[in-house]
Amino acid sequence: MKSSYKKTKKKREGREKKKMENESTESRNKARLAILELANMVSVPMSLNAVVQLNVPDAIWQAGSNTPLSASQILALALPSAASSASGDPENLQRILRMLTSYGVFAEHIDGSERKYSLTEVGKTLITDSEGLSYAPYVLQHHQEALMRAWPLMHEAVVDPTSDPFVKANGEPAYSYYGKRPEMNGLMQKAMSGVSVPFMKAILDGYDGFQGVERLVDVGGSAGDCLRMILQKHPNVRQGINFDLPEVVAKAPSIPGVTHVGGDMFESIPAGDAIFMKWILTTWMDDECKLIMENCCKALPAGGKLIACEPVLPNESDDSHRTRALLQGDIFVMTIYRAKGKHRTEQEFKQLGLAAGFPHIRAIYIDYFYTVLEFQK
Protein backbone atom coordinates (compact mmCIF):
# COMPACT_ATOMS: atom_id res chain seq x y z
CA MET A 1 0.00 0.00 0.00
CA LYS A 2 2.75 2.45 0.96
CA SER A 3 4.65 1.66 -2.25
CA SER A 4 1.53 2.24 -4.34
CA TYR A 5 0.83 5.51 -2.51
CA LYS A 6 4.38 6.73 -3.12
CA LYS A 7 4.14 5.92 -6.83
CA THR A 8 0.84 7.78 -7.12
CA LYS A 9 2.27 10.77 -5.27
CA LYS A 10 5.33 10.89 -7.52
CA LYS A 11 3.16 10.75 -10.62
CA ARG A 12 1.00 13.58 -9.34
CA GLU A 13 4.05 15.64 -8.44
CA GLY A 14 5.52 14.90 -11.87
CA ARG A 15 2.35 16.07 -13.61
CA GLU A 16 2.26 19.26 -11.52
CA LYS A 17 5.92 19.95 -12.27
CA LYS A 18 5.33 19.40 -15.97
CA LYS A 19 2.31 21.68 -15.88
CA MET A 20 4.33 24.41 -14.18
CA GLU A 21 7.12 24.02 -16.73
CA ASN A 22 4.62 24.26 -19.58
CA GLU A 23 3.03 27.35 -18.06
CA SER A 24 6.45 28.93 -17.59
CA THR A 25 7.39 28.18 -21.20
CA GLU A 26 4.08 29.62 -22.43
CA SER A 27 4.60 32.74 -20.32
CA ARG A 28 8.10 33.25 -21.77
CA ASN A 29 6.80 32.73 -25.30
CA LYS A 30 4.07 35.33 -24.76
CA ALA A 31 6.65 37.73 -23.35
CA ARG A 32 8.86 37.29 -26.42
CA LEU A 33 5.91 37.92 -28.72
CA ALA A 34 4.97 41.01 -26.72
CA ILE A 35 8.45 42.53 -26.95
CA LEU A 36 8.61 41.78 -30.69
CA GLU A 37 5.31 43.60 -31.15
CA LEU A 38 6.54 46.56 -29.13
CA ALA A 39 9.88 46.67 -30.97
CA ASN A 40 8.09 46.73 -34.33
CA MET A 41 5.34 49.11 -33.18
CA VAL A 42 6.68 51.86 -35.45
CA SER A 43 5.00 49.93 -38.29
CA VAL A 44 1.58 50.92 -36.94
CA PRO A 45 1.76 54.74 -37.07
CA MET A 46 3.80 54.67 -40.26
CA SER A 47 1.23 52.43 -41.94
CA LEU A 48 -1.54 54.70 -40.70
CA ASN A 49 0.35 57.65 -42.16
CA ALA A 50 0.70 55.78 -45.46
CA VAL A 51 -3.02 55.02 -45.89
CA VAL A 52 -3.85 58.66 -45.12
CA GLN A 53 -1.25 59.86 -47.66
CA LEU A 54 -2.82 57.49 -50.20
CA ASN A 55 -6.34 58.71 -49.33
CA VAL A 56 -7.45 55.11 -48.71
CA PRO A 57 -10.24 55.86 -46.18
CA ASP A 58 -12.10 58.23 -48.53
CA ALA A 59 -11.54 55.83 -51.44
CA ILE A 60 -13.26 53.01 -49.51
CA TRP A 61 -15.98 55.18 -47.99
CA GLN A 62 -17.38 56.44 -51.29
CA ALA A 63 -20.06 58.73 -49.86
CA GLY A 64 -21.14 56.22 -47.25
CA SER A 65 -21.33 52.96 -49.16
CA ASN A 66 -18.25 51.52 -47.38
CA THR A 67 -18.37 48.61 -49.80
CA PRO A 68 -15.55 46.07 -49.18
CA LEU A 69 -12.91 46.62 -51.85
CA SER A 70 -9.79 44.77 -52.89
CA ALA A 71 -6.40 46.47 -52.80
CA SER A 72 -6.52 46.82 -56.59
CA GLN A 73 -9.95 48.44 -56.47
CA ILE A 74 -8.80 50.83 -53.74
CA LEU A 75 -5.76 51.83 -55.76
CA ALA A 76 -7.89 52.51 -58.83
CA LEU A 77 -9.84 55.05 -56.76
CA ALA A 78 -6.94 56.43 -54.70
CA LEU A 79 -4.44 56.63 -57.57
CA PRO A 80 -6.47 57.29 -60.74
CA SER A 81 -4.38 56.91 -63.88
CA ALA A 82 -4.95 60.53 -64.82
CA ALA A 83 -3.23 61.69 -61.65
CA SER A 84 -0.50 59.06 -61.40
CA SER A 85 2.11 57.80 -63.80
CA ALA A 86 2.24 54.50 -61.90
CA SER A 87 -0.65 52.12 -61.29
CA GLY A 88 0.61 51.32 -57.81
CA ASP A 89 1.37 48.00 -56.12
CA PRO A 90 -1.79 46.32 -54.76
CA GLU A 91 0.20 43.60 -52.98
CA ASN A 92 2.10 46.13 -50.88
CA LEU A 93 -1.08 48.03 -50.12
CA GLN A 94 -2.74 44.78 -49.03
CA ARG A 95 0.14 44.10 -46.64
CA ILE A 96 -0.44 47.49 -45.03
CA LEU A 97 -4.22 46.94 -44.88
CA ARG A 98 -3.80 43.52 -43.26
CA MET A 99 -1.57 44.90 -40.54
CA LEU A 100 -3.94 47.78 -39.77
CA THR A 101 -6.84 45.33 -39.78
CA SER A 102 -5.17 43.63 -36.81
CA TYR A 103 -5.41 47.00 -35.01
CA GLY A 104 -9.07 47.51 -35.86
CA VAL A 105 -8.72 50.24 -38.51
CA PHE A 106 -10.12 48.09 -41.32
CA ALA A 107 -12.36 45.02 -41.50
CA GLU A 108 -11.17 42.17 -43.70
CA HIS A 109 -13.55 40.20 -45.93
CA ILE A 110 -12.16 37.06 -47.58
CA ASP A 111 -13.94 36.10 -50.79
CA GLY A 112 -12.35 32.91 -52.09
CA SER A 113 -8.73 33.80 -52.70
CA GLU A 114 -9.36 37.56 -52.65
CA ARG A 115 -9.16 39.84 -49.63
CA LYS A 116 -11.36 42.92 -49.46
CA TYR A 117 -11.45 45.73 -46.91
CA SER A 118 -14.01 48.11 -45.44
CA LEU A 119 -13.74 50.73 -42.71
CA THR A 120 -14.40 50.04 -39.05
CA GLU A 121 -15.58 52.76 -36.65
CA VAL A 122 -11.90 53.53 -36.06
CA GLY A 123 -11.25 53.83 -39.78
CA LYS A 124 -14.25 56.12 -40.22
CA THR A 125 -12.55 58.78 -38.09
CA LEU A 126 -10.22 59.31 -41.08
CA ILE A 127 -13.05 60.14 -43.50
CA THR A 128 -13.32 63.75 -44.63
CA ASP A 129 -16.69 65.09 -43.44
CA SER A 130 -18.96 67.76 -44.92
CA GLU A 131 -16.91 70.47 -43.17
CA GLY A 132 -13.66 69.14 -44.65
CA LEU A 133 -12.52 67.79 -41.28
CA SER A 134 -11.31 64.42 -40.04
CA TYR A 135 -8.59 62.90 -37.87
CA ALA A 136 -6.44 62.35 -40.98
CA PRO A 137 -4.55 65.70 -40.65
CA TYR A 138 -3.87 64.81 -37.01
CA VAL A 139 -2.14 61.63 -38.21
CA LEU A 140 -0.14 63.52 -40.84
CA GLN A 141 0.80 66.31 -38.46
CA HIS A 142 2.39 63.85 -36.03
CA HIS A 143 4.62 62.30 -38.66
CA GLN A 144 6.22 65.27 -40.37
CA GLU A 145 9.94 65.09 -40.95
CA ALA A 146 10.88 67.66 -38.31
CA LEU A 147 8.92 65.80 -35.65
CA MET A 148 10.33 62.44 -36.68
CA ARG A 149 13.85 63.79 -36.21
CA ALA A 150 13.11 64.44 -32.53
CA TRP A 151 11.98 60.93 -31.57
CA PRO A 152 15.42 59.23 -31.56
CA LEU A 153 16.48 61.93 -29.07
CA MET A 154 13.67 61.26 -26.59
CA HIS A 155 16.12 59.76 -24.10
CA GLU A 156 17.81 63.16 -23.94
CA ALA A 157 14.74 64.44 -22.07
CA VAL A 158 15.81 62.08 -19.26
CA VAL A 159 19.52 62.89 -19.49
CA ASP A 160 19.04 66.68 -19.66
CA PRO A 161 15.46 68.00 -19.37
CA THR A 162 16.63 71.61 -19.79
CA SER A 163 16.97 71.03 -23.54
CA ASP A 164 13.96 69.73 -25.47
CA PRO A 165 14.43 66.84 -27.96
CA PHE A 166 12.72 68.84 -30.74
CA VAL A 167 15.10 71.76 -30.16
CA LYS A 168 18.12 69.46 -30.24
CA ALA A 169 16.92 67.96 -33.52
CA ASN A 170 15.79 71.16 -35.24
CA GLY A 171 17.55 74.06 -33.56
CA GLU A 172 14.46 75.85 -32.20
CA PRO A 173 11.20 75.14 -30.32
CA ALA A 174 8.31 73.54 -32.16
CA TYR A 175 5.94 76.52 -32.05
CA SER A 176 8.46 78.95 -33.55
CA TYR A 177 9.50 76.29 -36.08
CA TYR A 178 5.87 75.91 -37.20
CA GLY A 179 5.42 79.66 -37.32
CA LYS A 180 8.13 80.03 -39.97
CA ARG A 181 6.63 77.30 -42.16
CA PRO A 182 3.09 78.10 -43.35
CA GLU A 183 2.46 74.57 -44.64
CA MET A 184 3.29 73.02 -41.26
CA ASN A 185 1.31 75.63 -39.37
CA GLY A 186 -1.66 75.12 -41.68
CA LEU A 187 -1.58 71.37 -41.21
CA MET A 188 -1.39 71.75 -37.43
CA GLN A 189 -4.40 74.08 -37.40
CA LYS A 190 -6.38 71.69 -39.58
CA ALA A 191 -5.37 68.80 -37.32
CA MET A 192 -6.50 70.71 -34.23
CA SER A 193 -9.81 71.60 -35.88
CA GLY A 194 -10.42 67.94 -36.74
CA VAL A 195 -9.92 66.99 -33.10
CA SER A 196 -11.59 70.07 -31.57
CA VAL A 197 -14.95 70.01 -33.34
CA PRO A 198 -16.08 66.58 -32.01
CA PHE A 199 -14.80 67.55 -28.57
CA MET A 200 -16.62 70.88 -28.58
CA LYS A 201 -19.84 69.14 -29.61
CA ALA A 202 -19.44 66.84 -26.59
CA ILE A 203 -18.85 69.83 -24.29
CA LEU A 204 -21.78 71.82 -25.62
CA ASP A 205 -24.06 68.80 -25.16
CA GLY A 206 -22.89 67.88 -21.67
CA TYR A 207 -21.56 71.00 -19.93
CA ASP A 208 -23.71 73.89 -18.62
CA GLY A 209 -20.90 76.16 -17.39
CA PHE A 210 -21.39 78.79 -20.11
CA GLN A 211 -24.82 79.74 -18.83
CA GLY A 212 -24.90 83.23 -17.33
CA VAL A 213 -21.66 84.24 -19.06
CA GLU A 214 -21.88 87.42 -21.13
CA ARG A 215 -18.23 88.09 -21.97
CA LEU A 216 -16.12 85.00 -22.70
CA VAL A 217 -12.38 85.04 -23.42
CA ASP A 218 -10.82 82.12 -25.32
CA VAL A 219 -7.09 82.00 -24.52
CA GLY A 220 -5.15 80.45 -27.40
CA GLY A 221 -8.29 80.41 -29.52
CA SER A 222 -6.45 80.34 -32.87
CA ALA A 223 -9.01 80.95 -35.66
CA GLY A 224 -11.92 81.26 -33.19
CA ASP A 225 -13.67 77.97 -34.08
CA CYS A 226 -14.46 77.11 -30.45
CA LEU A 227 -15.89 80.56 -29.70
CA ARG A 228 -18.05 80.41 -32.80
CA MET A 229 -19.57 77.11 -31.65
CA ILE A 230 -20.08 78.36 -28.09
CA LEU A 231 -21.83 81.55 -29.23
CA GLN A 232 -24.12 79.59 -31.52
CA LYS A 233 -25.15 77.33 -28.65
CA HIS A 234 -25.30 80.02 -25.92
CA PRO A 235 -26.80 83.34 -27.09
CA ASN A 236 -26.31 84.69 -23.55
CA VAL A 237 -22.61 85.06 -24.48
CA ARG A 238 -22.87 88.47 -26.12
CA GLN A 239 -19.18 89.09 -26.58
CA GLY A 240 -16.45 86.61 -27.43
CA ILE A 241 -12.78 87.58 -27.20
CA ASN A 242 -10.46 85.39 -29.24
CA PHE A 243 -7.07 85.94 -27.60
CA ASP A 244 -3.91 84.58 -29.21
CA LEU A 245 -0.54 85.73 -30.50
CA PRO A 246 -0.76 88.78 -32.81
CA GLU A 247 0.49 86.83 -35.84
CA VAL A 248 -2.19 84.17 -35.23
CA VAL A 249 -5.23 86.43 -34.81
CA ALA A 250 -4.08 88.52 -37.78
CA LYS A 251 -5.11 85.58 -39.98
CA ALA A 252 -8.32 84.74 -38.10
CA PRO A 253 -11.58 85.10 -40.07
CA SER A 254 -14.34 87.52 -39.14
CA ILE A 255 -16.91 85.89 -36.81
CA PRO A 256 -20.11 87.66 -35.68
CA GLY A 257 -19.89 88.51 -31.99
CA VAL A 258 -16.17 87.72 -31.77
CA THR A 259 -13.33 90.22 -31.40
CA HIS A 260 -9.82 89.00 -32.19
CA VAL A 261 -7.22 90.32 -29.74
CA GLY A 262 -3.48 89.77 -30.00
CA GLY A 263 -1.23 89.54 -26.98
CA ASP A 264 0.89 87.41 -24.68
CA MET A 265 -0.84 85.28 -22.03
CA PHE A 266 2.31 85.41 -19.89
CA GLU A 267 1.92 89.20 -19.59
CA SER A 268 -1.84 89.72 -19.29
CA ILE A 269 -5.19 88.35 -20.40
CA PRO A 270 -8.31 90.35 -21.42
CA ALA A 271 -11.02 90.66 -18.77
CA GLY A 272 -14.12 88.51 -18.99
CA ASP A 273 -16.88 86.85 -16.94
CA ALA A 274 -15.27 83.54 -17.79
CA ILE A 275 -12.08 82.40 -19.51
CA PHE A 276 -11.94 79.33 -21.74
CA MET A 277 -8.84 77.46 -22.86
CA LYS A 278 -8.26 74.11 -24.52
CA TRP A 279 -5.02 72.10 -24.54
CA ILE A 280 -2.98 75.07 -23.37
CA LEU A 281 -1.62 74.13 -19.94
CA THR A 282 -0.33 70.71 -20.96
CA THR A 283 2.50 72.11 -23.09
CA TRP A 284 3.94 74.28 -20.31
CA MET A 285 5.94 73.65 -17.15
CA ASP A 286 4.37 74.02 -13.70
CA ASP A 287 5.71 77.51 -13.00
CA GLU A 288 4.57 78.68 -16.44
CA CYS A 289 1.11 77.18 -15.92
CA LYS A 290 0.87 78.94 -12.57
CA LEU A 291 1.70 82.28 -14.22
CA ILE A 292 -0.91 81.76 -16.96
CA MET A 293 -3.54 80.83 -14.37
CA GLU A 294 -2.61 83.80 -12.15
CA ASN A 295 -3.16 86.12 -15.12
CA CYS A 296 -6.52 84.44 -15.70
CA CYS A 297 -7.43 84.97 -12.07
CA LYS A 298 -6.56 88.69 -12.31
CA ALA A 299 -8.76 89.03 -15.41
CA LEU A 300 -11.83 87.52 -13.71
CA PRO A 301 -14.32 89.11 -11.30
CA ALA A 302 -15.17 87.50 -7.97
CA GLY A 303 -17.09 84.32 -8.77
CA GLY A 304 -15.71 84.24 -12.31
CA LYS A 305 -14.25 81.02 -13.62
CA LEU A 306 -11.51 79.60 -15.74
CA ILE A 307 -12.77 76.70 -17.87
CA ALA A 308 -9.74 74.67 -18.90
CA CYS A 309 -10.11 71.62 -21.11
CA GLU A 310 -7.08 69.40 -20.74
CA PRO A 311 -6.06 65.74 -20.92
CA VAL A 312 -6.18 64.44 -17.32
CA LEU A 313 -4.14 61.36 -16.42
CA PRO A 314 -5.66 58.63 -14.24
CA ASN A 315 -3.99 58.02 -10.89
CA GLU A 316 -3.23 54.39 -11.78
CA SER A 317 -1.86 53.02 -15.04
CA ASP A 318 -3.78 50.35 -16.95
CA ASP A 319 -3.99 49.01 -20.50
CA SER A 320 -7.27 50.67 -21.53
CA HIS A 321 -7.32 52.60 -24.81
CA ARG A 322 -8.06 55.83 -22.92
CA THR A 323 -5.12 55.47 -20.55
CA ARG A 324 -2.78 54.53 -23.36
CA ALA A 325 -3.91 57.50 -25.49
CA LEU A 326 -3.37 59.87 -22.56
CA LEU A 327 0.06 58.47 -21.68
CA GLN A 328 1.16 58.42 -25.32
CA GLY A 329 0.07 62.05 -25.62
CA ASP A 330 2.15 62.85 -22.55
CA ILE A 331 5.26 61.40 -24.20
CA PHE A 332 4.46 63.33 -27.39
CA VAL A 333 4.41 66.57 -25.39
CA MET A 334 7.71 65.69 -23.70
CA THR A 335 9.43 64.93 -27.02
CA ILE A 336 7.96 67.56 -29.35
CA TYR A 337 7.00 70.53 -27.21
CA ARG A 338 8.61 70.73 -23.79
CA ALA A 339 10.65 68.15 -21.92
CA LYS A 340 8.90 69.25 -18.70
CA GLY A 341 5.56 70.12 -20.27
CA LYS A 342 3.18 67.29 -19.38
CA HIS A 343 -0.24 65.79 -18.96
CA ARG A 344 -1.27 65.98 -15.31
CA THR A 345 -3.53 64.18 -12.86
CA GLU A 346 -6.63 65.83 -11.44
CA GLN A 347 -4.81 66.36 -8.14
CA GLU A 348 -1.88 68.07 -9.87
CA PHE A 349 -4.28 70.46 -11.61
CA LYS A 350 -5.99 71.19 -8.30
CA GLN A 351 -2.65 72.07 -6.73
CA LEU A 352 -1.88 74.46 -9.60
CA GLY A 353 -5.32 76.06 -9.26
CA LEU A 354 -4.94 76.65 -5.54
CA ALA A 355 -1.46 78.12 -6.02
CA ALA A 356 -2.82 80.50 -8.71
CA GLY A 357 -5.63 81.81 -6.47
CA PHE A 358 -8.60 79.60 -7.33
CA PRO A 359 -10.13 78.19 -4.12
CA HIS A 360 -12.93 76.24 -5.84
CA ILE A 361 -12.05 73.54 -8.36
CA ARG A 362 -14.05 70.74 -9.95
CA ALA A 363 -13.38 68.25 -12.75
CA ILE A 364 -16.14 67.22 -15.16
CA TYR A 365 -15.47 64.08 -17.17
CA ILE A 366 -17.51 64.54 -20.34
CA ASP A 367 -15.31 63.69 -23.30
CA TYR A 368 -13.46 60.46 -24.05
CA PHE A 369 -10.09 62.26 -23.93
CA TYR A 370 -10.30 65.82 -22.57
CA THR A 371 -11.61 66.73 -19.12
CA VAL A 372 -13.32 70.02 -18.25
CA LEU A 373 -11.55 71.63 -15.30
CA GLU A 374 -13.51 74.46 -13.72
CA PHE A 375 -11.49 76.84 -11.53
CA GLN A 376 -13.71 79.40 -9.75
CA LYS A 377 -12.34 82.60 -8.21
TrEMBL record:
<dbReference type="Pfam" id="PF08100">
    <property type="entry name" value="Dimerisation"/>
</dbReference>
<dbReference type="InterPro" id="IPR036388">
    <property type="entry name" value="WH-like_DNA-bd_sf"/>
</dbReference>
<dbReference type="InterPro" id="IPR001077">
    <property type="entry name" value="COMT_C"/>
</dbReference>
<feature type="domain" description="O-methyltransferase dimerisation">
    <location>
        <begin position="36"/>
        <end position="129"/>
    </location>
</feature>
<feature type="region of interest" description="Disordered">
    <location>
        <begin position="1"/>
        <end position="27"/>
    </location>
</feature>
<keyword id="KW-0808">Transferase</keyword>
<dbReference type="GO" id="GO:0046983">
    <property type="term" value="F:protein dimerization activity"/>
</dbReference>
<dbReference type="InterPro" id="IPR036390">
    <property type="entry name" value="WH_DNA-bd_sf"/>
</dbReference>
<dbReference type="InterPro" id="IPR016461">
    <property type="entry name" value="COMT-like"/>
</dbReference>
<feature type="compositionally biased region" description="Basic and acidic residues">
    <location>
        <begin position="13"/>
        <end position="27"/>
    </location>
</feature>
<keyword id="KW-0489">Methyltransferase</keyword>
<dbReference type="GO" id="GO:0008171">
    <property type="term" value="F:O-methyltransferase activity"/>
</dbReference>
<keyword id="KW-0949">S-adenosyl-L-methionine</keyword>
<feature type="compositionally biased region" description="Basic residues">
    <location>
        <begin position="1"/>
        <end position="12"/>
    </location>
</feature>
<protein>
    <recommendedName>
        <fullName>O-methyltransferase</fullName>
    </recommendedName>
</protein>
<dbReference type="Pfam" id="PF00891">
    <property type="entry name" value="Methyltransf_2"/>
</dbReference>
<dbReference type="GO" id="GO:0032259">
    <property type="term" value="P:methylation"/>
</dbReference>
<dbReference type="InterPro" id="IPR029063">
    <property type="entry name" value="SAM-dependent_MTases_sf"/>
</dbReference>
<feature type="domain" description="O-methyltransferase C-terminal">
    <location>
        <begin position="153"/>
        <end position="358"/>
    </location>
</feature>
<dbReference type="InterPro" id="IPR012967">
    <property type="entry name" value="COMT_dimerisation"/>
</dbReference>
